[in-house]
Amino acid sequence: MTESWLGFWNRPHSIYVNERHLRVHCRRVADDIISVLPAGAGLRILDYGCGDALEAALVAARVGRLFLYDAALSVQARLRERFTGIANLTVLDDGGLAVLTGLDVIVVFSVVQYVPRGELPSLLRDWRRRLKPGGSLILADIIPPDVGMLADIRSLLATAAANGFLLAALAGLVTTFFSDYRSLRQRLGFAVYSDAEIETLLSEAGFVPALRERNLGFHPFRRTVIARAV
Q1: What is the mean pLDDT of each run of 10 residues along the chain (230 residues)?
Q2: Can you give the pLDDT at residue 83?
Q3: What is the pLDDT of residue 185?
Q4: d(CA 174, CA 153)
Q5: For residue 149, what pLDDT is reported?
Q6: Are 111 and 46 spatial neighbours (Cβ–Cβ below 8 Å)?
Q7: Which residues of 198-217 are buried (b: 16+ CB within 10 A; e: fewer)?
Q8: What CA–CA distance (Å, rounded) separates 147 from 100?
Q9: Which of 3, 16, 39, 229 gives the lowest tally of CB atoms within 10 Å of its CB?
Q10: What are phi and psi of 19, to 5 degrees?
């Protein structure tokens, strides 16, 4: 993630239109992560770029150990405060992440678009190094080249209508139009990948990729890949 994007996530922002939006999003992410976990007891899982992860305790209850990592220091602080007392959930700083290996699963949800394209191959190799042979890398919410802001708006409004915050979402679209998120998106753009591109990058990094028919999360126009470490 570039310093500009990191700075955005490290300060208060309005990417979620209200608290209900945030909670609905976090619950869907947690439920979807659980739905694709491999069978087996004692799984060691890393949620990389996890954000506020309000429902991470649900995931922790299904695995042996859950590690949460977000590069934004303000997010790390909130996570530590929120999940104090959950014995098998660890919030990592950069030092803790650096020595983490022997993982069964790494989840990377809605992060790849903020990583400069030139940095993704080395990041994929780093994730491969942290996984056990046969472990899984879950890349969710990858943006294809033909999916733009209008698709994001359609997804937001459909989610809001189904979950009771449509008026807040409409107001939030106005706020976003004048926000620094929109200006950053216009200036920096998102990293986008075709199915063939992401499969090639994963193969070169030591994975066997498999595209899912349905994306994890609420955005039906984006893509999820589950890749096996070899």
Answers
A1: 64 81 95 94 96 97 97 94 96 97 97 93 98 98 91 89 90 71 69 97 98 95 97
A2: 97
A3: 67
A4: 11
A5: 81
A6: no
A7: bbebbeebbbebeeeeebbb
A8: 34
A9: 39
A10: -65, -35
3-state SS of the chain is CCHHHHHHHCCCCCCCCCHHHHHHHHHHHHHHHHHCCCCCCCCEEEEECCCCCCCHHHHHCCCCEEEEECCCHHHHHHHHHHCCCCCCEEEECHHHHHCCCCEEEEEEECCHHHCCHHHHHHHHHHHHHHEEEEEEEEEEEECCCCCCHHHHHHHHHHHHHHHCCHHHHHHHHHHHHCCHHHHHHHHHCCCCCCHHHHHHHHHHCCEEEEECCCCCCCCCCCEEEEEEEC
Burial class of residue 179 in the structure, from the number of CB atoms within 10 Å of its CB (0-12 exposed, 13-18 middle, 19+ buried): middle
Residue with tokens 């698709």, as numbered in its chain: 151
How much is the pLDDT for 7? 73
pTM: predicted TM-score of the whole model, two decimal places: 0.89
CA atoms within 13 A on the CB side of 19: 0
What count of other Cβ atoms lies within 10 Å of the Cβ of residue 177? 9
At 186, list the tokens.
């216009």
At residue 179, the pLDDT reads 64
Is residue 206 within 8 A of residue 128, CB to CB? The reply is yes
